[in-house]
Each structure stands twice: as C-alpha cells, then as structure tokens.
Specification:
By secondary structure, this protein is an alpha+beta fold. The chain has six helices and 27 strands. The protein folds into three domains: 128 residues, no CATH class; 168 residues, Sandwich (Jelly Rolls), CATH 2.60.120; 130 residues, Jelly Rolls, CATH 2.60.120. The strands form seven sheets. Strands 3, 5, 6, 7, 8, 9, 10, 11, 12, 14 and 16 form an eleven-stranded mixed sheet that branches. It has a four-stranded antiparallel sheet with strand order 17-26-20-23, with no helix packed on it. The chain has a four-stranded antiparallel sheet with strand order 19-24-21-22, with no helix packed on it. Strand 21 and strand 22 form a beta hairpin.
C-alpha cells in the first residue's frame, strides 16, 4: 500500500502566495523602470517631433501638425498614433536614406534608441511621471523653441519674417464642390511693397490660404509642398527679381467632392530683399532635368525610367528637389565626375511619398566641376498594390495632372566663382539681361490666358 503525505492547506497556499507577491514586486520594479513623459519621453519628442508638433505649428505646404508633443495631455491622447507612425516609419517624415545622415539641413532621422524609448513609453501606458522633472526650456531641443511667426501689419503670419513685398490673387479662388483634383495657373498681383525696380531676393514664402492646397509651384516664389517651409538662402546667396515681374503660381487643389465641400482660397506669397550695401556672391539658379518620354504600362509595379544631364560649368550645388506624382516609388540621383566612370549617390529616396516632397539642401554647398553628369533614375508603381494609384488599368505618360506622371530632378546651384555684387550698385548687364529674358519668356507663355484653367474649375 502506498501512503501519501498531504501537506496542510496553509502550507499549500504559501508557495502560490509567494509567487504572486514576487510577481507583484516585479511588476512594481518594471513600472518604476518604464519611461515616463516628463522624465524621458518629452526630451525625445522635443528633438524629433517638436519642429512641427508644437503650439502655433508651422504651415508647411498647406498642412499643420494636429497636436503638440510639448503638452502631456495632447501627447498621451495621440500616443497610439505616435507608436503606429514610428513603427511604420512614416514619422518623422523624411525621404532620404539614412546613408545621407549629416549631409542635409533640417534632417529628420530618429535614432534607434529614441524610437525604442517612445515605443516603450506608449506600450507602458504613456505615463506622465513627475512633472517636477520636466526639462527646462534650455534643456529642450532648439526645434521645440523655434520662434513664432512674424506678424505683418495686415495680421498675416510669416515664418521667414515680415516680407518686404507681398503678392496675392486678384480675388479669392473658388474651389467648387465638384472639384477633386484641379491645377490652375493664376497670375498674382502686388498686395504690398514696391516691385517697380529690380530687387535681390534673400527669402521667399508661399502662405497657403486653404486646407485643400496640396502643393503649388511659382515662377518666382518657389515651391510649397507638405513638409517644406520657406525658401531662405544662405547669407550672400539670392536671385534677381526683375522690375514689375509677372508672378504666377500653379496651384494644385485636392479634396473630396460633394455638397458642402466648396472653399475659397486666398494663398499669398512674400519676398524678403537684401538691403543696399549687402554683398551677393552667389546668384541662385535652378534647372529641372527630366525625361518626358515615359509610358508606364498598366499594372506595372516597378517601371524604371532614366535620364542623363550634363553640367556645363563649375558650380556649387545647393539643393536637390526630386518630384513625381502618385505612382512615384523611389528615386536615385547619381553624380559621375569627368574622370568617371564611377558614380556617387547624391540622393537615394527608397520610399518616395507624393504627400511629403522634400527640399534637400546641403549643409555645405558642394563643388561640382564642368563636364560632370547627373544620372537620374525613377521607379514607378502602377499596380493595384499601390494604395495611392488613381487607376492601375491606365497607361501613364508624362503630364502636368496628378493622374499623369513626372520624373523631375530639380536642383539649385550657382556659379562656383564668387560674384561680389554690391546691392544698390549697378547690376551686371549679363544678369539683368538673363532676368529680362526669362521675364519675356514667361509673359509669352501666359499671353492670352492670365488665369489658366480657371474656366475649368466647375466642370
């Protein structure tokens, strides 16, 4: 016969009680070690997110951040979205591959350590922690303390500073209920300041006048796209604005159609000028290498198109700004020096996003010798797997509409030789002739249609 010894009931419970107590203690230790907002997350959020996610968030190409990470209440409410966007890589928004880290101004790379801390903070419940541990303003990242916009006399706000001259539509543009994707070219008029004489421009800004502006391109004001602020040139860099310029802007309005969706847009633009006595060493130009001979087959998930562009003079390369539409998938810009044939990758964007088009400005402009070649390669996804694709059954060619495609590779540059132009003194004849020639060309392009496309807005 086998005898069994049964332990008293209280002795049977003790191991279970000890185990539960140990688990509770572990949980307390883990909770104590979890990141909190004031102790940990705020500093990380300030250096990675607060450039946009802050009070009085800047309007970047028609969009503003919907909450401030500098407020615990707002950050906690949006914590699940913060985690989602960190995990899928869409935030912080920045297209250039990490191999370029350190090359461009206003980069938005987040370190693996910072990303892990924020994800752990959200996973642990996005706890507040001790408010007394909140970093001081001096301890927060500079982006969190960026200056507020400057207010002009008319109440408008400008991130580059109050403009010396402003241009605007003759009257607000009606974007009708049935409009979904509309791209008119509109002539702007002088709203303030004096443009009767040639001026040297140091900064430009497009101030979107509605939430339905996706992007805009102006002949003199530059480009406004999601994620891009004013164009502010380095000291001593700028361009010549001719007297009485014809300022036009191509607007891209994108919205849902239907009753109650009509909106009036009053987008404006501003110029900041150099003052007499300032010296212009570098006159900024830009050009757009492109391949118009593209025909993307229906359903093609990885169509590739290339273009080769020769650089004719020694230049200083200031910035790169590639552009495509909804089917744009990736872009690579490579430089081949005259001694070739090796190529250097100037820019690799492996996951291009039409909704975030960046202006990649070098921290230090780089010298490129005459005879160098810029090799442009774009990849396009015209398949049903592309959620942004308007129609995967269509053959897509080059064109201005968003349902068409582009494979542009705009770059900004200047002659490598310093010019030493003193503002207020006589403008070199060659530069004045170049500006005048461009102005004549623009006027010829717009002859007979001051507001191109406006008649189509409600059709």
């Amino acid at each position: 016969m086998i005898s069994l010894k049964i332990a008293p009931r209280h002795l049977q419970v003790l191991p279970l009680f000890a185990s539960a107590a140990l688990g509770f203690q572990v949980a307390l230790v883990q909770a104590a070690q979890s990141p909190t907002y004031y102790d940990d997350a705020l500093a990380v959020l300030s250096r990675n997110c607060a450039e946009c996610h802050r009070p009085d968030a800047p309007n970047l190409g028609g969009i503003t951040a919907p909450f401030s990470v500098l407020s615990y209440e707002e950050a906690k409410a949006w914590a699940p979205v913060i985690a989602l966007r960190l995990e899928d890589g869409s935030m912080p928004p920045w297209g250039a591959h990490r191999q370029h880290q350190g090359s461009f101004k206003n980069e938005r790379y987040i370190s693996d350590e910072d990303k892990r801390l924020l994800l752990d903070w959200v996973a642990a419940g996005a706890a507040a922690g001790n408010p007394s541990q909140r970093p001081t303003d001096k301890e927060l990242a500079p982006a969190a303390l960026a200056p507020e916009p400057a207010l002009a006399a008319d109440g408008s706000s400008w991130w580059m500073g109050v403009p010396h001259a402003r241009v605007a539509f003759p009257e607000p543009i009606e974007v009708c209920e049935q409009t979904r994707d509309w791209q008119p070219t509109i002539r702007m008029e002088v709203a303030a300041g004096d443009l009767s004489e040639p001026r040297w421009v140091k900064a430009t800004e497009i101030r979107p006048g509605s939430s339905v502006m996706h992007h805009s391109v102006s002949n003199y004001l530059g480009v406004a796209v999601p994620g891009r602020g004013p164009q502010v040139y380095p000291q001593g860099w700028g361009f010549l604005l001719p007297a009485d310029p014809l300022v036009t802007i191509n607007m891209h309005y994108a919205k849902q159609s239907g009753p109650g969706t009509a909106i009036a847009d009053d987008t404006t633009g501003g110029f900041l000028f150099y003052q007499p006595g300032d010296v212009i060493d570098h006159v900024v130009q830009n050009t757009i290498p492109m391949n118009r001979d593209i025909a993307i087959p229906p359903g093609d998930p990885n169509y590739m198109a290339t273009h080769e562009h020769r650089i004719e003079q020694d230049i200083l390369l200031l910035a790169l700004a590639p552009h495509a539409h909804y089917r744009g998938k990736a872009v690579k810009l490579e430089l081949e020096l005259p001694q070739g044939p090796e190529r250097e990758t100037l820019l690799w964007v492996p996951d291009y996003d039409f909704n975030w088009q960046f202006h990649y400005e070098y921290k230090e402009p780089r010298f490129v010798p005459a005879g160098a070649k810029l090799h442009v390669t774009w990849w396009f996804d015209n398949s049903a797997a592309n959620p942004a694709n308007p129609d995967p059954t269509a053959e897509v060619r080059y064109g201005p509409r968003s349902v068409d495609e582009m494979m542009n590779a705009r770059y900004y540059f200047t002659s490598a030789e310093p010019q030493g132009i003193v503002v207020g003194e006589e403008i070199p004849e060659e530069l004045l002739a170049r500006a005048t020639q461009r102005e004549h060309y623009l006027r010829e392009q717009l002859a007979g249609w001051e507001t191109a496309g406006l008649s189509e807005r409600c059709q």
